[in-house]
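> forwarded from #structure-qc
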């Protein structure tokens, strides 16, 4: 669950609502953001992550970095590394020298940000909304609503409209949790090693491999 949430950082969006607006409709704008993200090689995103559950008294905040190249990605956050080549996902915990191995998967449980975006195209309704924090940051808000019973019934996406770039993501789940992602910096076309989006357990002597495939 935690991995899914972390990797929903770029998952914004996006559906077939046909609302007419001055420039782009909500779904057209989100599609433009998704396509630009998908077509940018080796995108590095620095972000802050906050989990809020008012009833449970939870308010956690962390900083992380996401590297994205198509369906391949690497996330560095909170003492763990999550890396995928688009087919396999490795979640490495340095403190215990343990790595969990799983398939990338599809749909709402997918760990690929681009796969999650594709899922939203099919399952969510997009309209323009109002959010004071987004407005104060110069972001345009798109509200996504899922069908009844959706794991994540509501998502607010803050977009830098002129740049067609994701700025903020707020995800509400059906357990009363709110997950907030603020993207502070995006750097395209970074130089990465050939094997950057893979994980080789042999490089970690004594590692415990938990294969869940």
């Amino acid at each position: 669950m935690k991995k899914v949430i972390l990797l929903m950082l770029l998952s914004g969006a996006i559906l077939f609502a046909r609302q007419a607006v001055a420039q782009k409709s909500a779904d057209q704008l989100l599609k433009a953001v998704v396509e630009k993200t998908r077509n940018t090689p080796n995108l590095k995103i620095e972000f802050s992550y906050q989990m809020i559950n008012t009833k449970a008294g939870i308010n956690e905040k962390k900083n992380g970095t996401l590297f994205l190249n198509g369906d391949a990605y690497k996330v560095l956050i909170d003492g763990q590394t999550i890396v995928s080549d688009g087919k396999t996902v490795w979640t490495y915990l340095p403190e215990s020298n343990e790595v969990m191995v799983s398939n990338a998967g599809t749909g709402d449980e997918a760990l690929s940000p681009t796969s999650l975006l594709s899922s939203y195209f099919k399952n969510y309704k997009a309209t323009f909304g109002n959010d004071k924090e987004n407005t104060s940051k110069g972001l345009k808000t798109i509200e996504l609503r899922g069908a009844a019973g959706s794991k994540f019934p509501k998502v607010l996406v803050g977009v830098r409209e002129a740049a067609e770039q994701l700025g903020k993501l707020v995800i509400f789940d059906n357990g009363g949790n709110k997950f907030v992602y603020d993207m502070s910096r995006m750097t395209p076309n970074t130089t990465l090693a050939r094997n950057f989006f893979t994980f080789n357990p042999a490089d970690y002597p004594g590692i415990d491999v938990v294969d869940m495939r």
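QC bot note: The chain is about 15% helix and 40% strand. The helical segments are 2-6, 26-38, 113-123, 132-136.
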